[in-house]
Specification:
By secondary structure, the protein is mostly helical. It has 4 helices and 2 strands, in the order H-H-E-E-H-H.
Length: about 180
Amino acid sequence: MTTSIHVTALDSVVNVNSLFTLAVFIGLAWNPYDSSTILVEKGTRCFANSNIAEDMVKFHVYSFSSFLFSSLVALAIKQAIKLSKSHAFNININFRGSQFLEHVDVNKTLLRVGMLVSGAGSVAGSVFLMLALVNVVQIKVGTLACGSGHAFAAIVPLVILVPLALLIYVCVGLYAFTR
């Protein structure tokens, strides 16, 4: 089984999770009730209460822990592949000398399970980040309960595009497992 593709995929998972983790940290460092950035007046029906702010923080923490979990699993699999190189491997160098195609004997079932678990962590982190962003929008432009048109305009594309992208990600990942 060629593992250079798997190592590249694991690197990509870690890189994307790192970007999302940065977004989560920025979200956690932000003051949701900074009066200079809120477009809804305090005390009105559309003003977000403390429960929405608490949910925003909770979803950011859940998102962070999911992305961290996914990255750690991906790094552990990558390390296991590198450690297994000492047992058996072949390296083919192309004519430029810069491309290495490696063959390593690894447990295919464990590799697939690990990649599936890592992918599930990334999906969970993305869902929690989306939920946190829904709460950010409600704090900034008004709650969905009051019928804020600005909130609906921001949230509807978010809850359509993110799940659609996650569905594509899951389908491609499952397709890769069958090959």
